[in-house]
Design a protein that fits this description.
The complex is a heterodimer of chains A (387) and B (180). Chain A contains 15 helices and 2 strands. By secondary structure, chain A is mostly helical. Chain A has one domain. In chain A, strands 1-2 form a two-stranded antiparallel ribbon. In chain A, a hairpin with a 5-residue loop joins strand 1 and strand 2. In chain A, helix 11 runs antiparallel to helix 12, helix 11 packs antiparallel against helix 15 and helix 12 packs across helix 14. By secondary structure, chain B is of the alpha+beta class. Chain B has a domain of 123 residues: Alpha-Beta Plaits (2-Layer Sandwich). The model of chain B has no long low-confidence stretch (mean pLDDT 88). Classes of the chains: A mainly alpha (387), B alpha+beta (180).
């Protein structure tokens, strides 16, 4: 079946792969909203949504009540509600940009996924090939470039709403995004200084970042970069919270002082697009963090996926099949991403929001100098090691 | 009184990074997350009603099945939000309880007005109206939220009676006070 797939023209393969990724990412992002509600409920000592059930599914004995308690069907109910309820456009808005903003929110959110590899397999020639929609050399740079376009949707939404609270929300969001973008970019520079060894071809590809953490056994290469560069990982994580507008940096929404922030005037399906885009950003952000600092699809430091598959080959004959390795890699990767999604939610329901001036102070006076210092430190260290 | 000046200690470096506090907070929320939920799942689990709870006002009958209300209208007059409306009626003299003379022909309590203060129960000389345990009162229309007499008796049921006032009165009427 796989061979049949590989004989298709390239555009058809890419289209199918792209649709498959969107078909996974979109429900995954929607499921995050459910997970958010459940985790919030558990942290607050409530059961959370646990009533919705599809009538004829309720006959299945054990599984259906379990899924019902988990609130899985609430997800479908919420989604259906957003699709079918009235989609209001207030009279005082700039209609073109008002409609454009949620679309602009979705585009970068779904585009960044193309550059994120989520697994790898050995092809017939024995080369390690990444499972990625577009394995481009500019990799991370493309992620940064496209994901920061997401702020345009926030600015557009705030401006087109023609109302003061959305406007304030969008201004805060853009200022915050610009402030933290700097620290974020500076924090990953040491990673790519380390990956691009002198003499080799330069790359910013995320696949190369995982490769650099795929050493086997007690070897310097087998250290995950999160262990080898903890400060970079920390700055990147904090900036990621700010970039995805998550608590404690939830300035774009800050429902306590700005009603609903930039999407105050939105409702129904358009609002849900913003929502899904926010979660898609979170998923992609967690994915990039996992790839760069937590070894991507490698199960443990010093135990790369390739070694696992080669070890399994002695026991199971089909372990070396590309499909098996691909699925295993994707599962490990998604597991790590899911943990980070959980971490995002865990932090959200633990911390209060920073004040706006505290956010700016933290971004410019604390994180930025730290990121620069970190860059200089690792530049010198790597120069010493690679000399 | 002496004024105590408490100087605020400057934050330590660790505190200024927020990190120890954040980790502490994460620990607390994680502990909370793995504990069972505190909430009561309402329609299946019902709260325990404390004694002397003031629920929906109801009319009660005495153990012999006689309606206790004599439509004196004290509750109607005392009701602060004017939720009670009574139309007094006569009990025919040949009925077994004919000596009571009066009973309500209609007895409406508008539950959209009722404030559950319990003054009606307090004022009732016949111990005929009680705020009992029912705490949820729902309806699809304003009309449905008005409890009529039949509904009030249905909700109220029969409560034990220590006095049997009207039985005693009847006995006194027939046999004189010597009976007691």
């Amino acid at each position: 079946m796989l061979d049949f797939f590989f004989h298709w023209p390239l555009w058809a393969q890419s289209a199918v792969k792209g649709l498959a990724v969107i078909a996974v990412l979109f429900p995954f992002a929607a499921a995050c909203s459910m997970a958010e509600r459940k985790i919030c409920a558990w942290i607050q000592g409530r059961p959370g949504p646990n009533r919705t059930i599809v009538p004829w599914l309720a006959w299945i004995p054990v599984i259906a009540p379990f899924l019902q308690r988990l609130g899985l069907f609430q997800l479908a109910a919420d989604g259906g509600k957003f699709v079918f309820k009235e989609d209001p456009i207030p009279g005082h808005v700039n209609k073109l940009y008002f409609v454009l903003a949620p679309i602009l929110a979705m585009i970068p959110a779904l585009t960044t996924v193309t550059i994120v590899p989520f697994g790898a397999y050995f092809n017939q020639a024995g080369q390690l090939v990444p499972l990625v929609l577009a394995n481009v050399d500019i990799g991370l740079l493309a992620v940064f470039a496209i994901s920061s376009l997401g702020v345009y949707s926030v600015i557009l939404a705030g401006w087109a709403s023609n109302s003061k609270y959305p406007f304030l929300g969008s201004i805060r969001a853009s200022a915050q995004l610009i402030s933290y973008e700097l620290s974020m970019t500076l924090s990953v520079l040491p990673v790519f200084l380390w990956i691009n060894k002198p003499g080799g071809a330069g790359t910013l590809s995320l696949f190369a970042a995982v490769e650099a953490q795929s050493g086997q056994g007690l070897h310097f290469d087998s250290l995950w970069l999160g262990i080898w560069m903890p400060v970079s990982a920390f700055i990147f994580l904090v900036a990621l919270f700010a970039e995805t507008n998550r608590q404690p940096f939830d300035m774009a929404e800050s429902e306590a002082d700005l009603v609903g922030g930039f999407h105050t005037e939105y409702g129904a399906f358009k609002w849900s697009l913003f929502f899904v885009a926010e979660y898609a950003h979170m998923i992609v952000g967690s994915g990039v963090f996992t790839l760069m600092f937590l070894g991507g699809w490698n199960p443990l430091p010093g135990l790369p996926l390739a070694a696992v598959v080669h070890g399994l080959e002695h026991w199971i004959s089909w372990a070396s099949h590309p499909a098996f390795m691909g699925v295993l890699g994707v599962l490990i990767f998604l597991g790590k991403v899911a943990f980070f999604i959980f971490f995002f939610m865990w932090v959200r329901w633990t911390l209060p929001r920073f004040r706006y001036d505290q956010i700016m102070k933290l971004g410019w006076q604390k994180l930025l100098p730290l990121a620069i210092g970190n860059l200089i430190f690792y530049a010198l260290l790597i120069a010493l090691i690679d000399r | 009184m002496a004024v105590l000046h408490v100087s605020r200690k400057p934050l330590t470096f660790a505190e200024r990074t927020y990190i120890p506090q954040i980790l502490e907070g994460l620990k607390i929320t994680f502990k909370r997350m793995i504990q069972p939920a505190e909430t009561m799942e309402y329609p299946e689990q019902r709260p325990e009603i404390p004694k002397n709870y003031r629920g929906v006002p109801t009319l009660v009958k005495d153990p012999n099945g006689r309606e206790k209300c004599v439509s004196c209208q004290l509750c109607e007059f005392v009701c602060p939000p004017k939720a009670i409306r009574i139309t007094p009626g006569e009990i025919p003299p040949d009925a077994p309880t004919g000596h009571v003379e009066k009973g309500p022909q209609a007895f409406d309590i508008d539950m959209l007005r009722c404030i559950y203060c319990g003054l009606c129960q307090e004022v009732c000389p016949e111990e005929a109206i009680f705020l009992q345990n029912q705490y949820s009162m729902v309806g699809y229309s304003r009309e449905e939220m008005v409890n009529h007499k039949s509904r009030l008796y249905e909700l109220g049921g029969t409560l034990p009676d220590q006095h049997h006032k009207w039985d005693k009165k009847k006995a006194a009427e027939e046999h004189g006070n010597a009976a007691h």
